[in-house]
Design brief:
A: about 220 residues, alpha/beta, Trna Endonuclease, Chain: A, domain 1, six-stranded mixed sheet, 6 strands, B: about 425 residues, Nucleotidyltransferase, domain 5, 2 domains, 19 strands, about 35% helix, about 20% strand, binds adenosine-5'-triphosphate, binds magnesium ion
């Protein structure tokens, strides 16, 4: 198993053999420190960014990580002039890669490094055309929207589980009261059936159902013979 | 069974401009009846999260608007005057998505849930193929989400009568695209239905002309803008000539300045403020001579319709159209029909400002006046909740119609059911 820096030099060699030079510039420094692992510059000054993902214990984790990276990449490259992006997956299992369509759709390329340190370009990256500003900002909007929604769902789930707890409490109390009531008297409780009682409560809760003659008219509908 | 049907009653009102839907509640959910087709490239992020769709409906549509200049090619309003063309595949796709959107939103997690009892409301003049398509869409969605145990379709005016708790009446439903006059006595009297090819859109057209006159040519082309302007500024005159006379005499009292929401633009109607009344009048009498000049300028005249072999002018005054419809019903029914005329639909919910009540009126007063001028004394009332009343009626229908009553094409009634029909 190679170390991280050995992987880096392996990839560097691979790109250099294809006519690219390692690229470092003030403008992209932050990105290199915080997100991408390597950058290259080609003959036509196009810039290629590389992100390495190594296999963790679970193949699912890798898949999820790659998907997250793709989202990040899309939001990053919409603001910065990068021509191609490759994700380099180290020792991936078949199941640990997301659906190929996602790469094709997003234009992000995929390179794998096998156990024998062999580099294979599985999906070539597409040259990113310069998108107009509005398109970019929509992508960003959606990205934040999705993030926002996830937070909201999370909060809702939390609230739901609280409600569930309260509901259970209520149910227990109702059960208790029910037992008590039936104990006090079985005779005095009027003959209104449970169902009818419920019906009444519901009718009363919506104005458009209350005393609506159509309920009766329509309930008599049947196929004429 | 009944308890289940009541618990899982679900209603849908397919309006030309809005789709209103949802289970038993105080109010339905409401979204615009439109969808936007996005290219694969654009929906990439949705793909990553497992939602792969080419059509977006609901509030998200607005995320995509304004960001591209060629919207018209992608944004689809599937209905026109309450109809969807038989072979308009794109339009039917949007209807499918809207319908599915509703079920995805409201599908409950309860263990006893095995699908809703769905009542869908369509225009009173919806052709049979629309019924077939709506059934097909629901059965398809049921196979995908298991949410439709049974579905039925009723005409929108019947739904209104139900929501208004009136068994014998004339319902006048006027939305954005058209106006349907339907006499009802336990059942809709189908051969007496009179439709007019006009609705809120006609008032929009007049409002747009007025904006042009005021020098807002660009704004006049924005549908949404025109519509809000109309709703904020337009008035129904009790009598148009009288209203114009008064407005010109006392310009201060009728003066109106419209501030465009969220901006600093103000539209000052100045000495043209009397034109506010034209916006409301067109709904009730597009034959008033004052509109001639607008038609001559190119504003389109509502097209004619045919009822029982008789041609009905698209511009027929509303009062006359109501009389015509009642005349198609059995004579002995007429008096009780005039006893209750119900106006519903967004196009009848006009504002009546405090200080102008001597000349500006609500839609019911206007129709009562039109009928009285023809020598007919009638009770006319506004539906309680004009925009939602169709939906409310569909909910009652779902609750009340017996589960074992199966769909009958002749009567257009009964349940179209899982296990029986699909
Ligand atoms: N306050 C208001 N004043 C005037 N017009 C209004 C008001 N509110 C809504 N409208 C108009 O009502 C129309 C929409 O009504 P509605 O929601 O009943 O239509 P719809 O059901 O979508 O269409 P349809 O019934 O024709 O198929 C629009 O033209 C809208 O501008
Ligand atoms: Mg409607």
């Amino acid at each position: 198993m190679l170390s991280h820096s050995e992987f880096l030099s392996l990839i560097e060699k691979y790109f250099e053999s294809r006519g690219y030079v390692t690229f470092l510039s003030e403008e992209y420094k932050d990105l290199l420190n915080n997100f991408f692992d390597l950058m290259f510059r080609g003959k036509n000054n196009e810039i290629i960014a590389i992100k390495i993902v190594e296999q963790k214990e679970f193949s699912l984790k890798m898949k999820e990580e790659i998907e997250k990276i793709i989202v990040r990449v899309l939001s990053i490259v919409s603001n910065i002039d990068i021509s191609k992006v490759y994700i380099v997956a180290v020792n991936p299992r078949f199941t640990s890669l997301p659906n190929i369509d996602i790469f094709k759709e997003s234009g992000i390329g995929l390179i794998t490094i096998g156990p024998d340190n062999q580099i294979i370009e599985r999906i070539p990256a597409k040259m990113r055309e310069y998108r107009n500003m509005v398109g970019k900002s929509i992508e960003k909007d959606i990205y934040f929207l999705v993030k926002d929604l996830r937070t909201k769902v999370y909060l809702l789930e939390e609230r739901m589980s609280k409600y569930e707890e309260r509901l259970n409490n209520l149910l227990r109390r109702i059960e208790f009261i029910e037992n008590k009531v039936s104990y006090i008297s079985t005779k005095e409780v009027s003959a209104i059936s449970d169902v009818e009682e419920k019906k009444k409560v519901m009718d009363d809760s919506f104005d458009f159902l209350r005393d609506n003659p159509w309920l009766n008219v329509l309930s008599k509908r049947k196929k004429s013979t | 069974m009944d308890a289940y049907k009541r618990k899982y009653a679900y209603g849908e009102d397919y309006g030309t401009s809005y789709f209103k839907f949802g289970p038993l509640a105080e109010k339905p959910e409401i979204i615009e009846n439109r969808g936007i087709f996005v290219s694969d490239g654009e929906s990439i992020i949705f793909k990553i999260f497992g939602v792969s769709r080419n059509i977006i409906v609901g509030p998200e549509v607005s995320l995509y608007l304004g960001s591209r200049s060629d919207i018209a090619r992608y944004l689809i309003y599937p209905m026109k005057d309450g109809r969807v063309e038989r072979n308009d595949e794109k339009a039917w796709k949007v209807i499918y998505e809207l319908t599915r959107y509703g079920f995805e939103k409201f599908k409950p997690d309860d263990r006893d849930f095995d699908g809703f009892y769905v009542t869908a409301a369509l225009s009173a003049i919806a052709p049979d193929y629309m019924y077939e398509k709506i059934f097909e869409i629901h059965s398809r969605i049921d196979s995908e989400l298991n949410v439709v145990k049974a579905v039925t379709i009723i005409p929108q005016p019947l739904a209104v009568a139900i929501a208004q708790k009136t068994v014998t009446c004339v319902v006048v439903e006027s939305g954005h695209g058209n106006t349907q006059i339907t006499p009802i006595s336990m059942y809709p009297i189908r051969n007496a239905i009179v439709t007019l090819n006009r609705g809120g859109a006609e008032a929009d057209a007049v409002a747009a002309e007025i904006l042009r006159d005021l020098g807002y040519e660009d704004r006049a082309r924005e549908e949404k803008f025109v519509r809000t302007f109309k709703e904020k500024v337009g008035l129904i005159p009790l009598d148009l000539d009288e209203a114009i006379r008064k407005a010109k005499e006392e310009p201060k009292r009728f003066y109106v300045k419209y501030r465009v929401p969220g901006t600093r633009i103000e539209i000052d109607m100045g000495d043209k403020s009397w034109m506010r009344f034209l916006i409301g009048e067109i709904i009730f009498n597009p034959e008033h001579e004052i509109f001639e000049s607008y038609y001559n300028r190119g504003m389109s005249r509502p097209s004619d319709t045919v009822v029982g072999g008789e041609r009905i002018r698209g511009t027929l005054p509303l009062g006359e159209a109501i009389e015509k419809s009642v005349n198609y019903t059995p004579v002995e029914l007429a008096p009780s029909l005039f006893k209750k005329i119900i106006l519903s639909g967004g196009n009848f919910s006009w504002q009546v400002p405090q200080g102008l009540r001597d000349v500006a009126v609500d839609a019911a007063t206007k129709v009562r006046k039109q009928l009285r001028d023809m020598g007919i004394e009638a009770n006319v009332e506004l539906a309680k909740d004009p925009v939602y009343s169709v939906w409310k009626g569909t909910i009652v229908y779902s609750i009340a119609v017996p589960d074992d009553y199966l769909w009958d094409w002749k009567k257009k009634e009964g349940w179209y059911k899982r296990g029986k029909h699909y």
